[in-house]
Amino acid sequence: MLLHEFNPSIKALTVVVCVLVLSIFFDPVTPFLTLAVTAAATFIFGRVSFRRWILLFSPFIFMALIYIWSALVFSKAIEGETILWTWGIFTLTEESFQRALSLGMRVLSFTSLSLLFMLTTKPAEFLLSLMQQCRLPPKLAYGIMAGYRFLPLIKEEFDIIRNAHRIRGVPKARTLSEKLAELKRYAVPLLAGAIRKAERTAMAMESKGFTGDRNREFYHKISVSWKDWAFFAFFIAVVLASAYVSWLFGFLQLYNGKL
Amino acid sequence: MALQRNHHFLKSEQLTFRHEGENKPVFQNVDFSLYPGEAVLLLGPSGCGKSTLAYCLNKLYPEAVDGKLDGAILYKGKMLEEFRPGEINQHIGIVFQDPESQFCMTTVEDELAFGLENMKTPPEEIGNKIDKALELVHLLPYKHAQIHTLSGGQKQKLALACVLSLKPEVLILDEPTANLDPASSYELTSIIRELKKDQSFSLVIIEHKLDDWIDLTDRCLVLNREGEILFNGSTADCFNKYAGELQAEGIWLPSSVKAGLLAKKAGIYKGKNLPLTEGELIAGLVNPNAALQILDNRKIPPPGLKEQIILSVKNLSFNKDGKELLKNISFSVKKGEFVAIAGSNGSGKTTLSRLLAGLYTPSNGDILYHDRHLSLWKEQDLRQRLGYVFQNPEHQFIADTVYDEIAFSLKIRRMPDADIKKMVQTSLQQVHLLQHADMHPFSLSQGQKRRLSVASMLVNEQELLLLDEPTFGQDANTARELMALMEEKIRRGGSVVMITHDMEILHSCADKVIVLSDGEKIYEGLPDDLWKKHEIMKIASLKVPYIEKLRNDIRRYGREGKVCSYMNLTQA
Amino acid sequence: MLDKWKLREVIVLSVLAVVFAVVYLVFVQFGNVLYGMLGLIGYDLIFGIWFIVSIIAAYIIRKPGAAFLSETIAAAIEVMIGNAVGPRLILSGMIQGIGAEAVFAATKWNNYRTWVLIAAGMGSSVTSFIWGYFISGYAAFSPGYVTAMFFVRLISGALLAGLLGKWLSESLAKTGALSSFPIGKEIKRGKSDNGITA
Predict the structure, then answer these.
(1) Which of A20, A167, B15, B77 sits 20 to 30 Å CA-CA off B493?
(2) Interface check B65 vs C, CB under 8 A
């Protein structure tokens, strides 16, 4: 059983619901446990190599650290908390330290859930599934597919334009207005080319008889079975179980109600 | 041709098309019929509405744009408006020019399924139909391939397969080979020729270079600059009557017609009609051997080419992502020399040119410009002495007006405004763009954009100019003007290194040819000697230029006896 | 909603989203630098850039849904090409899009003047901030800091999305690439009114 085989729409729904549920908790243990289970599932049932996973994951470790740092420095001081350390106006309480840690962990647990989805789902199948299960209009779904196809082309053109600017001897942008001019020099040819290509693609699609008709029979059928819902239930259970374990050890903290 | 000519099935009556808010029609009063199994070549100067007409016949226009179509189009006696949306596309298919913008799915299989699903083909039949269509264009091994990994030629074959899978009765070809190299282009035309024998469809062909299409064509329809029908009749009549006019409009004539026109002017062609094929040309020449000298446009090497080497490449290798893109390449460029780089797609031509321009850093080996390592040059100095013209002119544009585009590099050099003005004007005059000085570079026509991109690289009097297929997809006039600019550059002591697929340019202009294959240099020398190296020609999928082909054929027929060979030729 | 759209408009929308998805990814790197230097508020400084596609798409296509859909698709594409924020980002995109769309809806999709475009950029700032407050746990920060973040983001939305989006769209229209869209026709008309140097 591979994660790739589950229905893409339900996989996406699972990730989003897990994220929403996780947002209720303000303790570091719940997201950490979820992270551990999710990552393990990605490796075992997603056949994703650790190397590839950590490559995508590592920038978020940095992001998590910044979150922790910001949350420590600009933490909300609440009366009656255990003070760990004071220095001038800067006060660190045990509770705020835990909150900061929880925000960092939250970023990482979200990332692990997302990677589980991204590394085991093909974009084309996701869109086919959105059309077949979620009634996404074909006009939009195939429009997105068509746009998505331009991606390698846009990257390639970006490179060419950078080289062309060197050839023309465009000096390095220093001031703000030069930077804006530079942004324009890149964006305008890229967009102009892309828009013309988009219009041509639209015509090519229409020439193949595409009308955007919602009654469409698919060659490539994406189905939903009880297994997909079991997958959904499993991951929600993982999050709730994480919270339960956290509660058992006395860490669990919900948002304290003051907005 | 044994076809029932009485039943046209596609017919237009007094067709006129205008873009919204414009008085001048794109084309007007076009009466046109297409018969079953017929192949019609649609000709006309660029901008005369050929493609627009094709899109109207397919009902893509006017829906896709804000425009107004007057007159009527009937398919098998039924007005096009009476068809349900998308219905007519099953009967009338089209292959477009740009291989990059014809698909909306990521894999070959899904793309074919997309069209079949649109036509409400029962899903269980789709698999079979996909296989059949791919087989027709020899793409079956690529069924599960990602489209973006295919070559341009393969993409166009896929586009053709998509159309064929719907079993159309009319196939419109809107310059399908314009973006392909000669080898892929030849392959695509061969496939279409094969298919036309076995399948019964009519063809409407819009094409740029006609050599591969001419024997397939039953009839020509010529539009003039105003978008009116200038001529509608047999191919032979078309070129006999209008060859001169077509040429003046920048339309590429079939090589035999062009040669015939030249020979006739020189008084050495005695045939009554202009030749459409080589056989007809040879048969009509007064003295074929003598004619070769007149028809040959090989440039005479300037007396005493200077021996000063300005660019030298030694043992150059280049790796990217673990792949060896160029292997151990050495050669040099002299002052006043025209060096052409040829080779099939993916052989490393563009990579080599980028290395020569100092845009990439060599993995191994040296590139010396004026005896100094490229890496030691100050960026600004290098750019003022070495120009590079990209394949797509738009990539190079950085200003909002044509004027500023040329003035840009002069301003960097902090030249006085008055001088800049003078130089820009001279430069724009040279490429006939002075009257467009205030326009946005992007809003120019394709040929104008090309000229502007070259002009912007000539204004600094760069000694070495590198060009990446500058004549690609250009009309005959632009190509000719461009080559004139290069000649002028050489005359003033500059050197030119040009990547090109065009063997006619190679033959007529190059002092030296370098042929690449799989990142290796497999030939360096005179073009004349290259044509004799059959093995190299085959590996690099090059075709001999027309004049060489003619020379070979004349020699062969001289041996075999003229009458007999002419018979063979007309039958072939 | 989509039935009134031509396929051409849908694909142009989608291509805009793709281009800006790439731009957004580049700015994530840039944002991380600011973020490292200034903390969380560093991100808010450039947050507006993430709404720009809403403004550009709405200004070019001028149909209900353009702002919302473009932002949503850009987010979806970002997910596909490797922003590990993942499917949640699609939700963020939708919420940002709703902010801008709401402003255009208030003008009944009839007014695309500068102040409307600026307001739309700010609209995205507001909705995105509310969402961020919940999902990223801003509640853990001191109220003063949160207020500062909000105002910085509001200004960023106005400038980097509203004004920059307008300027880029108009630069693009001048190339003639948008000739079949209302904005292209306006530029053309403007040109013929005041001579070539418009």
Answers:
(1) A167
(2) yes
